[in-house]
Design a protein that fits this description.
With 91 residues, the chain is α+β, with helices and mostly antiparallel strands. It has one domain: 2-Layer Sandwich (Nucleotidyltransferase, domain 5). The strands form two sheets. The protein has a two-stranded antiparallel sheet with strand order 1-2. A two-stranded parallel sheet has the order 3-4. Helix 2 links the parallel strand 3 and strand 4. The radius of gyration is 14 Å and the shape is globular.
């Protein structure tokens, strides 16, 4: 698998996930890594696999643990037991 480098001098930000059940990489480019784009990517994953529970493994980026992202996860998982969460995140 290869991710094309558009311009080697410029910073590039990609969010990626592996859909283990489908055997595919779900990759999306963004202009920056931040809370807004993290939430957008999570929404994208949910829309791509609406009937699946998502297990996300984060790297150490602080915006993955931001108040905005935590609020989004709370909304998505509202009223569900932890076994039923639509998105579960691990670091």
């Amino acid at each position: 698998m290869a991710v094309p480098v558009v311009n080697e001098r410029d910073k590039q930000t990609y969010y990626g996930a592996i859909d283990y059940l489908q055997g595919k990489l779900v990759l999306k480019a963004y202009d920056a890594g931040n809370s807004k784009n993290t939430i957008d990517y999570l929404q994208y994953l949910l829309s791509d696999s609406p009937d699946q529970q998502l297990l996300i493994f984060w790297d150490g980026a602080s915006y993955h643990r931001s108040k905005e992202v935590r609020g989004f996860l709370s909304e998505v998982n509202l009223g569900l037991s932890s076994e039923q969460w639509k998105i579960h995140c691990e670091r």
